[in-house]
């Protein structure tokens, strides 16, 4: 209630005559408390999952060490975590490990970003031209089914025996999947939204910018997570074929000199770095969804 001077009384605007809060305020407080409890529960579940994941990793490393030490598995072929760690320390002290890691991460990042941008562009081009989409659809299917490793020698001839051919290999592995996933999402945009926008005279460009593209962001972000693994595959295969530097080169060199500890070191580093890149993309996805909400 308002006082004579036009200000609220001591109980405030939300107080009723008996000094209690209105039911709407109580319901809002209950919803907030319920939401906070839900967030706390989800955080506890996430912590438990992380702990279990860490325990599984530790268990795998211990089992690997024990199995190799007791010769349940061939220590020459599978090495041991102790030898792998020692090999990594040796390369780091020699000053070569960081260079190999940087080379592979740089090539993967460039290939990953390029494949994503090119895939979204091609998907948009197909959406803008349904006729073009029907014409090249069988060719996209053929390109998707083609083994990309077979293109490696061609890339080496065309782009040279350098980083460019490796990046092109990564792009060739990831771009078709990105195009198909994103274009499928463009086509599945809610038709009612498009019809409503057209009733207001929206052009096709405006439809894409204001409805189709924003509605497809979840699919694009999901394609990013898929592209991380595909880009790593393309780069490692490219380094197998042509590189003189990088984690793929370490693996193939280890096979050539029968240093399987070096091979396992390369595999372990690739696993760690690919996981980190995936977690970065997943975190970006969470941030974008939170911003959207």
TrEMBL record:
Belongs to the binding-protein-dependent transport system permease family. This is Hydroxymethylpyrimidine ABC transporter, transmembrane component. It is found in: Cell membrane. It is a multi-pass membrane protein. CDD domains: TM_PBP2. Residues 101-281 form the ABC transmembrane type-1 domain. Keywords: Cell membrane, Membrane, Transmembrane, Transmembrane helix, Transport. The keyword Lipoprotein does not apply. GO terms for cellular component: plasma membrane. GO terms for biological process: transmembrane transport. Signal peptide: none annotated.
């Amino acid at each position: 209630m308002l006082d004579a001077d036009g200000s609220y009384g001591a109980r405030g605007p939300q107080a009723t005559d008996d000094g209690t809060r209105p039911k709407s305020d109580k319901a809002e407080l209950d919803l907030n408390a319920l939401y906070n409890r839900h967030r706390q529960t989800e955080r506890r579940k996430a912590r438990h999952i992380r702990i279990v994941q860490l325990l599984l990793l530790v268990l795998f490393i211990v089992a690997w060490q024990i199995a190799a030490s007791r010769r349940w598995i061939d220590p020459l072929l599978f090495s041991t975590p102790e030898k792998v760690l020692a090999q990594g320390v040796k390369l780091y002290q020699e000053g070569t490990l960081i260079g190999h890691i940087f080379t592979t991460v740089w090539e993967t990042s460039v290939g990953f970003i390029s494949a994503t941008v090119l895939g979204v562009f091609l998907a948009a081009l197909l959406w803008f031209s349904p006729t073009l989409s029907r014409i090249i659809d069988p060719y996209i299917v053929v390109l998707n089914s083609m083994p990309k490793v077979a293109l490696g020698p061609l890339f080496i001839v065309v782009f040279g025996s350098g980083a460019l051919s490796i990046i092109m290999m990564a792009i060739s592995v990831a771009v078709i999947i990105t195009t198909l996933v994103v274009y499928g999402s463009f086509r599945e945009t809610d038709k009612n939204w498009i019809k409503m926008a057209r009733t207001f005279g929206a052009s096709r460009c405006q439809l894409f910018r204001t409805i189709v593209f924003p509605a497809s962001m979840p699919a694009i972000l999901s394609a990013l997570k898929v592209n991380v693994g595909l880009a790593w595959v393309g780069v490692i295969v490219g380094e197998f074929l042509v590189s003189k530097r990088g984690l793929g080169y370490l693996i193939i060199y280890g096979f050539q000199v029968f240093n399987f500890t070096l091979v396992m070191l390369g595999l372990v580093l690739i696993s760690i770095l690919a996981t980190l890149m995936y977690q970065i993309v997943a975190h970006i996805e969470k941030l974008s969804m939170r911003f959207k909400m």
